[in-house]
Amino acid sequence: MQTEVSNKLEQSLDGLEIVFKKPETLTNTPFHYCPGCGHSVVHRLLMEVVDEMKIQDKTIGVAPVGCSVFAYDYMNIDMQEAAHGRASAVATGIKRMLPDRFVFSYQGDGDLAAIGTAETIHTVNRGENILMIFINNAIYGMTGGQMAPTTLLGQITSTSPYGRNEKLIGYPIKITELISQLPGAYYVTRQSVHSPSAVRKLKKAIEKSFEYQKLNRGTSFIEVVSNCPSGWKMTPVESNKWLEENMFPTYPLGDIKVPKN
Amino acid sequence: MEHNNNSGEEARIMKGNEALAEAAIRAKIDGYFGYPITPQSEVLEYLTAEMPKRGGVVLQAESEVAAINMIYGAAGAGGRVITSSSSPGISLMQEGISYIASAQLPCLIVNVNRGGPGLGTIQPSQGDYFQAVKGGGHGDYHLIVLAPASVQEMADFVFDGFRLAEKYRNPAMILADGALGQMMEKVILPKEGSLPKIEKTWATVGKPATRERNIITSLFIEPEKMEGINFQLQEKYKKMMDEVRFEEIALEDAEIALVAYGLSARVCQKTVDLAREKGIKAGLLRPITLFPFPSEAISKLADKVNFILDVEMNAGQMVEDVKLAVNGKKPVYFKGRMGGVIPSPEEVLGELENIIEKVNVNQD
């Protein structure tokens, strides 16, 4: 069906130049993500970079537990599905077996910064030569909007119905700043996908990370501050506005650690 | 069928843990991922010293949880990989082992069993039989479980374990105990490189244009699909019945049979000698594969003997499988010591004599 539609589309474009299309390494499976969710944009950017670097045959991804548990349905590359919290340990196992391949892990906030904190810290501390993608939307999306380690103070979720109270449950964890202190972290940055310019910046960061991996430089770590319209109970537009006003003060965008030249 | 790996080398005296580690190098492992815990830390120590010189990856993980997930990743990437731990550490690995069983990844897991429950003791125990043989983690699955009873078998079963794991795309476990890990015995080490590597077309090594992408996963969200995977696993476990292995000692004319595995079988071997000296016609059946279990052999044995005494270093775990195999045909008795205590051959003989006396009284 998909192919038929795109064939017809291409015929109707006869004589015109195609300037924007789906990356080859994205499958034809439609994304299951909620309207406005950042996951599909990040998936797409990853595969755009894999396409452009022509490394489909050398790239292995590790999918997490959470909304992006089915990441391997969309990315047309070899992939492994990890247990909750363990993506970076699984990625370590893959990379140690196949040091010349490009390996990335993809995790959400509960996965990477709560249940998988030990794996996250020690993977970076070993300077595993991989890319770790960290999607931070301050909520457990897939299980229905529970409080995450990154949930903001006062933020209402299904398990913080009176708002996150630091006296009871502590502060939103800034895991990205935390791991940036480790010598194994080579490139640490915080990006987002809430606007076209932010999307372009994230793509640059992904490109850099893969280049560094080629050069065997250590761990690249990209936090993507993202939204969760369903979990936050907002429209996509409202969620992006909320993100700018509420998430960015706690999670400011920009590079946190860059290679010294 | 056991792997013929006789290297023709001279015998050496080695610790069980070290013989196992050396055998792993000779089995040409691509990687070892582990975490220190008594009484098996020598495996990690030996490999961190030897593998940098002889090739392969050795990595001390931050926890057993991380180690087993590194095994998942590395096995999924096509590596021949092994981890080892002892009881509490193996408990920590159970989630990962369940994922590995479901994703059908071949690998070898070594449990040098110590006394429990809880933090327990560092002394030898067989308290993890249920955990090893019945699955251990969540869901319907089995490991292939090999139970060595000597340092020689600690080495040999590394080869047998990998061969079976790779044949069935299933995790295999060597279920030893603290005594087998720590004791020194004569061992003839298997020949380096005598276990051929097989092609793993399913491994995630990077997708070439010529094939569909490979996905390693244990997630099958549609119930019918998940049931399909379960049927596939159960079919595989049935096929594994061809791999049953056990040893029979002095059973030809035996009137009484002992059933014991691993270190308990070593104890019972001596008990058989002591019993024979006293004119008691005792013999021993030693299961070598705990899964698949030698049920048929034990059922046939029950036809021949007056009763069976099952001996274990736990509160009575394998005895349940023995009773299922015997299916009420003959009485099955149990003798066990727990918490790191090893029964003496004399103690087992005493139990045997008590039972004989009881049986005779009942018959009179």
Strand order within the widest beta sheet of chain B: 3-2-4-5-7-6-13
- SSE order of chain A in H/E notation? HHEHEHEHHEEEHHEHEHHE
Beta content of chain A comes to: 15-25%
Oligomer: heterodimer
Secondary structure tally: strands of chain A: 9
How many separate helices of chain B?
12
- Strand order in space, largest sheet of chain A: 2-1-3-4-8-7-9
Rg calculated over all Cα atoms of chain B: 21 Å
User: How confident is the prediction overall: mean pLDDT of chain B?
Assistant: 96
The CATH architecture classification of chain A is 3-Layer(aba) Sandwich
- Which homologous superfamily in CATH is the superfamily of chain A? Thiamin diphosphate (ThDP)-binding fold, Pyr/PP domains
Number of helices of chain A: 11
Largest sheet of chain A: 7 strands, mixed
Distance between the termini of chain B: 46 Å
List unreliable stretches of 5+ residues of chain B.
none
What would CATH call the class of the largest domain in chain B?
Answer: Alpha Beta
Using CB atoms under 8 Å apart, which protein chain pair has the greatest interface?
Answer: A-B, 33 and 40 residues
Secondary-structure-based class of chain A equals alpha/beta
Total discrete domains of chain B: 2
Architecture per CATH nomenclature, i.e. the level-2 architecture of the largest domain in chain B: 3-Layer(aba) Sandwich
